[in-house]
Amino acid sequence: MTQIDKNAVLTPLGEQLVGGSLSDAALMQATASTPDFAILPWVNVIKIGGQSIMDRGRSAVYPLVDEIVSNLKHHKMILGTGAGTRARHIYSLAIDLGLPTGVLTVLGTAVAWQNAQMLHYLLAKHGIPFIEPEGFSVLPHYLMERNAVICQGMPPYKLWEQNPATGRIPPQRTDTGCFLIAEVFGARKMIYVKDEDGLYTADPKKDRSAKHIPRISVDELLALDLDDLIVERAVLELMARGRNMHEIQFINGLKPGQLTAALNGEPVGTTIYRNGHAQGDAK
Questions:
Q1: pLDDT tens track for 68-107
Q2: How is residue 207 annotated by DSSP?
Q3: Considering only CA atoms, which of 80, 95, 79, 88 is closest in space to residue 51?
Q4: Using one digit for the tens of pLDDT, what is the confidence trace for 178-195?
Q5: Model pLDDT for residues 167-180, shown as the tens digit of each residue
Q6: What does the DSSP 8-state code read for residue 105?
Q7: Beta-strand (E) ranges in the chain?
Q8: DSSP structural state of residue 73
Q9: From CA 109, how far away is CA 114, in angstroms rounded?
Q10: Rounded CA gap, 21 and 33, in Å?
Q11: By 3-state DSSP, what share of the chain in percent is helix, strand and coil, each rounded to 5?
């Protein structure tokens, strides 16, 4: 290790980091002692479902675009897109060819990118830009100027995606990517736009007896071990140990006004909250 100048200005934590092991449990605990700085505490991250919204075409996308435009004067938004049915097709082909999870992630990212591009063109006349991960450094500028930006929802792991516990489908997909954006930026809200009224005890499209769950904690939801979840399980696992995002909300994008209601803080759809934040405090 390089010898550190005794006169160097280091905080107590800095001295521990310089002189200790980065895998030391006590040192890791010490790094959690300071509060996180909320980079964009006024931004709302909105994940627009691929299969649930984008794949439905004009009938679903155009009204949602109109609602996004109507909210530009009132809310700042990062719009992330899902991959949808086309990703499922390409996953099936890649698995049949024996390709690994990292390659499937690359292919799924390409589909989410296509959906983001289509949304970008529909919002282009309003000056809403599409930003890839490499361009996120200019994202705050566009938010201040145009009040919204568009990105594809997949986290930029690509070939570096971890293998799932079972099978080969990438475990962290567009739901996870959008959540991580909200968590890192300390966003005001994380809203998922789906084609259902939120979380149910089963898939309401297949089971008419499924019951709607308007509000539930992460721990309670994981304990239920439902066969069908409205969100990737990775999001729940990340949220359980997150530091900024204490709530995520799910709304029906096929119902006009639900996005606006969610942006205004109304309890539409379903809210999943981190334990200890049951009163609706998103921060």
A1: 999 999 999 999 999 999 999 999 999 999 999 999 999 9
A2: -
A3: 88
A4: 999 999 999 999 999 999
A5: 999 999 999 999 99
A6: H
A7: 43-48, 76-81, 148-152, 189-194, 199-200, 212-213, 215-217, 247-252, 270-273
A8: T
A9: 9
A10: 18
A11: 40, 15, 45
Which of 247, 263, 256 minimizes the C-alpha distance to 43? Answer: 263
Are the C-beta atoms of residues 43 and 185 closer than 8 Å to each other? Answer: yes
DSSP state letter for 124:
G
DSSP, collapsed to helix, strand or coil, labels residue 55 as helix
Token pair recorded at residue 173: 């997909």
Q: What is the pTM of this model?
A: 0.92
Reading the block at residue 122, the tokens are 């529909």
CA distance 241 to 130: 30
Residues 196 and 49 sit within 8 Å (Cβ to Cβ): no
Of the candidates 57, 122, 47, 128, the one whose C-alpha atom is nearest the C-alpha of residue 81 is 47
How many Å apart are CA 212 and CA 46, to the nearest integer?
22
Burial class (CB in 10 A: 0-12, 13-18, 19+), 253: buried
Tokens of 151: 């990105």
Q: Which residue has the tokens 């539409």?
A: 268
Residue 128: what residue type? I
Angle formed by the axes of helices 174-185 and 233-240, nearest 10°: 20
d(C-alpha 168, C-alpha 175), whole Å: 18
Backbone angles phi, psi at 248, to 5 degrees: -135, 145
In this structure, are residues 154 and 109 in contact, taking their beta carbons and an 8 Å threshold? yes
Coil, strand or helix: which one is 158? helix
Reading the block at residue 181, the tokens are: 């954006």
- Kindly report, residue by residue over 258-274, the tens digit of the pLDDT: 999 999 999 999 999 99
Alpha-carbon span 101 to 279, nearest angstrom? 39
- Yes or no: say if 66 and 128 are a contact pair by the CB < 8 Å rule: no
